[in-house]
Amino acid sequence: MAHRITDTDGSHYAFHYKNSNHEFEASKFGIWVFLCTEILMFGGLFVGYILNSGKYPEVFEVGATFLDWKLGFLNTVILLFSSFTIALSIRNIQIGEQKKAFNNLLVTVLCGFGFMGVKGYEYSHKFHLGLLPGKFFNYTPHTAESDSHPTGEADEKPARSNASETSHVSELPKNMPMYFSFYFVMTGIHGTHVIIGMCLILWAMLRLKRGDFDPKHYTFVEGAALFWHLVDLVWIYLFPLLYLV
Amino acid sequence: MSYAAGSNYLNHEKGLWSWLTTLDHKRIGIMYMISVFTFFFIGGVFAMLMRLELFDPGPLFAAQTYNQMMTYHGAIMTFMVIIPGIPAFIGNFTLPLLIGAKDVAFPRVNLLSWYCLMVGAAISFATLFFAGVDTGWTFYTPYSIQTSGTVLMVLGAFVMGFSSILTGLNFIVTVHKLRAPGMTFFRMPLMVWALYSTAVIQVLATPVLAITLLLLAFEKMFGVGIFDPNLGGDPVMFQHFFWFYSHPAVYIMILPAMGIISELITTFSRKTIFGYRAIAFSSIGIAAVSFFVWGHHMFVSGQSSFAGIIFSFITMLVGVPTAIKTFNWVATMYRGSIQLKSPMLYALGFLFLFTIGGVTGIMLATLAADVHFHDTYFVVAHFHYVMVGGTLMAIMGGVYYWLPKMFGKMYNEFGAQLSFLFIFCGFNITFFPQFLLGSAGMPRRYHEYLPEFTSLNKISSIGAWTIGFGFLIALAVIIHCILKGEKAPQNPWGGKTLEWTHADSPPIHENFATTPVVEAGPYEYGR
Fold first, then answer.
1. B-chain residues within 8 Å CB-CB of A33?
2. What's B183's domain CATH number?
3. Radius of gyration, CA atoms only, chain B
4. Which candidate from B176, B210, B232 shows the least CB-CB separation from A41?
5. Count of domains for chain B
6. What sections of B227-298 are H helices per DSSP?
7. Smallest CA–CA separation between A66 and chain B, in Å?
8. pLDDT tens digits, A50-67
9. Among A33, A44, A182, beta carbon nearest to B203
10. Who contacts B304 (Cβ-Cβ below 8 Å, separation ≥6)?
11. Dihedral (C-alpha) B171, B511, A218, A19: value to the nearest 10 degrees?
């Protein structure tokens, strides 16, 4: 097993590094490289979205009218705020305020729960209407009419284009399920990342309580925070593409 | 930590459990070696069976059985043998030694990548017990979403992709952060430049494969309609996505092979490598260009003819850095004192075969010619000349070169040269006729063929069994070396890189007793 070495100042590092700072720098670099792979992976999805929305603009235009931009906006605010709180917790650790750091991490995780809650609400609404990906899509304009919109979609519809409103109740464009395929795949993979990020932060909180971190050594929190920022960044692109286009 | 005399990484800890939980890059490299050789054997058996089928024009196996053998041969050889073959196996063992480090940057991630390969391979092999997969290793839609087994196979490839990403990530950080004092970038051995370029491709391209395969699985499970033309999707987009990874992936396979060849040629010519910087930069150049050539797989798939022209042109550009390397290797040998040991034989075999593979690659890149050659045995011959004649030759050369370092034992030179003879001759007998078959119009991927192709196919099959026999000899030589080989000195080849000059054979657990300090370039034979 790779053993760890205790430095003269009491810090620990793996035997193949020069000192704990060297290890910290390498770890941070590794995390950044990992984030590049994430961006490339989401990049594939975005390219698929762009190509298909260019090919079937009507599908994506009508599809977006089924989403409630207010809920999307709420989630955007939640995630941006949580990015802020996790950045604060890093600052707290750097100046030795462990208690505050813990609280800020806690707020971040709660934001994560909030985000997933709103997402779950949106999903269940779409499940209810039959707005499902691919072959499970069984929405008919008729059920939409008879269904009351608890999200207040009905109120904001007139604000959008009239064409899309009529399409809500009359005929849907061909290949309509494709929009919901993209919606569920993109938000689903993003949501999976949110859950992974929350697990990382919870783990970071446990380790913080255990006293693993000090102002100079907090690699794990740094990594979790960078990952969380990435999750936030991806959402900043997903929100306009899916809800506002 | 202090070490008793005779202590090394092999006997540092004992027992199977100490291997399965090891964080030592050398041990993980050896575990990769065992897995890659096993997979190579299985993939090879499929190849032998395919050549048995093609020995006669008529059918021997059912068409579907043949298609499955072809699929497993392709998938095993790419995802489980050639992609992990050099970076994860030879690279894992040598990279830290070459740059004077004690280990890779993230030893735990390194172990995780081995387990990813194992789990992914297990999932892929599990498909054999269900219906099997007969899509070919490329999983082209729409066929792949109509057959069973695709989801499981794709999931296996997805997990193996993580193995590749993690190795690449580890290597990038290792090269940046763990070089020994004095080891500047331009004092790094060329193998390190090659592994670094490979790692960049692994990290940037593999995630795109991951998302493509995930979407393919969703297409099959949920009918998401992204690739399925019946639902408005675009099967050509799948090809774009797939080759955006899989073309750079062939450079994941060949770039580190070129790194090995650089080491072999300079060591066995006793001469400073000619054009160090040119070779180093050409590795980066190939990695950069590799991302912009994927469309040459799709000249007849229905992409725009303008895109075809652009891809054709960029593809030919790959020939430039490749030729730079080849000429520099030849120039290195010029007036060197060449020793024809087995590793050098493989390096020369590489130069010969890879050049044929490369030049036929330019032929295939030519838009008009490709329309004729596309999906014929000409393509099969071309990529086997590059992947087997190139990469596999380099792997074998690298294995013989570093075996004394890995196990502290010498192999039997006569046996190794004998196996080289069988492999090299068998290879040409197998694949050269396929160029002729392809240009005569024999399509690839069929279990039957027209009677006029019979004689060339018989020659090809006999060649394939010759290669198989050669590899069995090689296996015997390697096993004999590990079990009964003579004790190897620290530097049997007179190499100038750190693993020969500063580390024992086999190295101690921490690689170097004292961290080496580098004061000159890697191949200073004049000094």
1. 169, 172-173, 203
2. 1.20.210.10
3. 23
4. B210
5. 1
6. 235-269, 276-289
7. 18
8. 999 999 999 898 888 889
9. A33
10. none
11. -120
pLDDT score recorded for residue A223: 95
Q: How many domains does chain A have?
A: 1
Interface of A with B in 160-179 (CB under 8 A): 174-175, 177-178
In a domain, B523, yes or no: no
Interface predicted TM-score of the whole assembly (ipTM), two decimals: 0.91
* Alpha carbon distance A108, A202 (integer Å): 10
To the nearest whole number, what is the mean pLDDT of chain B?
94
Strands (E), B311-413: 409-410
Is residue B2, in this structure, part of any structural domain at all? no
Number of CB atoms found within 10 A of residue B159's CB: 21
* Closest among B287, B283, B277 to B187, alpha carbons compared: B277
Partner-chain contact B215 A48, CB within 8 Å? yes
Q: What is the CATH number of the domain that holds A193?
A: 1.20.120.80
Q: Say if A202 falls within a structural domain.
A: yes
Give the one of A3, A48, A177 whose C-beta lies nearest to B231's C-beta.
A177
Q: Out of A34, A51, A59, name the one closest to residue B237 (CB).
A: A51
Identify the band that residue B4 occupies on the pLDDT scale cut at 50, 70 and 90.
low
Residue B1: its chain A contacts at CB < 8 A? 3, 15
pTM of the model as a whole: 0.92
Confidence at residue B377, expressed as pLDDT on a 0 to 100 scale: 96
Residue A170: the pLDDT is 59
Query: Could you identify the residue written with the tokens 């190139």?
Result: B390
Burial code (b: 16+ CB inside 10 Å, e: under 16) for B472-492 equals: ebbeebbeebeeebeebebbe
Q: How far is A131 from chain B (nearest CA, A)?
A: 12
Nearest to B26 by CA among B504, B489, B476, B394: B504
The pLDDT-based confidence of B527 (bands split at 50, 70, 90) is: low
Residue-wise pLDDT tens digits, B493-520: 999 999 999 999 999 999 999 999 999 8
Beta-carbon separation of A182 and B226 below 8 A: yes
CA angle at A125 for the pair A83 and A116, rounded to the nearest 5°? 20
Asked whether residue A10 is domain-assigned, the answer is no
Q: Give CA–CA dist B18/B15, Å, rounded.
A: 5
In terms of CA atoms, which chain B residue is nearest residue A33?
B169
Q: Are B98 and B188 in contact (CB under 8 A)?
A: yes
Position B407 in a domain: yes
DSSP string for B458-516: HHHHHHHHHHHHHHHHHHHHHHHHHHHPEEPPS-TT---SHHHHTS-SSPBTTB-SS--
- Structural domain contains residue B478: yes
Residue with tokens 């010759």: B466
Size of interface A-B (CB pairs under 8 A): 129
What's the CA gap between A61 and A55, in Å, rounded?
A: 12
Say whether residue A3 is in contact with chain B using an 8 A CB cutoff: yes
Interface test with B, best of A3, A16, A21, A187 (most B CBs within 10 A): A16
Yes or no, beta carbons of A181 and B218 under 8 Å apart:
yes
- C-beta separation of B178 from B153 below 8 A: no
Q: Is A212 exposed, middle or buried (0-12, 13-18, 19+ CB in 10 A)?
A: middle
Of A29, A178, A181, the CB nearest to B176: A29
Q: Which residues of chain A have pLDDT under 70?
A: 1-2, 141-170
